Amino acid sequence: MYRRLLSLLLICYLPMTHAASGLQGYTAHYDVKRNGMTLGVSERQLVKQSDTRFIFTSRTRASGLVGIFVSDVVTEQSTIDINGAELRPLNYIYAQTGSSKKKNIEIDFDWQNLRLVHSALPGLNQFPAGAHDLLSYQLAVGRELLAGNKSFSITVVDHKRIRTHSLRVAGTETFTSKQGEVKTIRLDEQAEGQPYRFIFWIAPDLNYLPVKISKVEHDGDKVTLILRQYNGKKIKLTNSADDDD
């Protein structure tokens, strides 16, 4: 049971979005829920090191009742370079610590030669131009939305393979929060060869930050990330057309 809860908690694999031009640093906190039950919390932080270099970090841990039985913490970090209009991941690190088996993955991107060093996949040594890691992916999605694209695909180097993610705009929805109305773009995603799909609610007025993300399994089981704090301000979202929390 707790192994399943842990696998649901590790929703930090979920890609997120942020505008690809005029990037600003931010800190966002999310609750991780399954069918209304809180499994954990996730913190995402984007830090600007220079005009062309950003560090994006994600940290997810169990909380509440689940935290009594599952002490795992998952940390991801991506170093991202902005080369003109192009966003390039340079290094990606994944670390899982706690009660379960430890897991560490590091991926280095050599853009001059399109060569890859993947600690978990030594046989995977090349990547296509325009590829992303699991965190820099968010910036690529933000750029597509900012450009007004309604349907697009992005290549991602993940922990097991290079995979294509297909996304399409499915409409708009409005939430209410302590800060007032939050208008969002609903974005549906299907990853190549996966039995699940993601749904994102992305707020252009928050620099294309996702305020809610759902992972829907083929059997209808749903895990949700929902924004509760943004740059130190508490936010409680209600009145979603797809609110199950």
Structural overview:
By secondary structure, the chain is mostly beta strands. It has one domain (2-234). It contains 3 helices and 14 strands. Strands 1, 2, 3, 4, 5, 6, 7, 8, 9, 10, 11, 12, 13 and 14 form a 14-stranded antiparallel beta sheet that branches. It is globular and about 50 Å long.
Note the gap between the termini. Answer: 21 Å
What percent strand? Answer: over 45%
How many H/I helical runs? 3
Percent in helix: under 10%
Structural class: mainly beta
Let me know the average pLDDT: 83
Report the count of strand segments.
14
Radius of gyration, in Å, reads 17 Å
List the helices and strands and how they pair.
Layout: H1 2-9, E1 26-34, E2 37-50, E3 53-62, H2 64-69, E4 73-83, E5 86-97, E6 103-110, E7 115-118, H3 137-146, E8 151-157, E9 162-177, E10 180-191, E11 197-203, E12 209-216, E13 222-230, E14 233-234
Antiparallel strand pairs: 1-2, 1-13, 2-3, 3-4, 4-5, 5-6, 6-7, 8-9, 9-10, 10-11, 11-12, 12-13, 13-14
Summarize this entry quickly:
This protein has three helices and 14 strands.
Key terms for this structure?
245 residues, mainly beta, 14 strands, globular
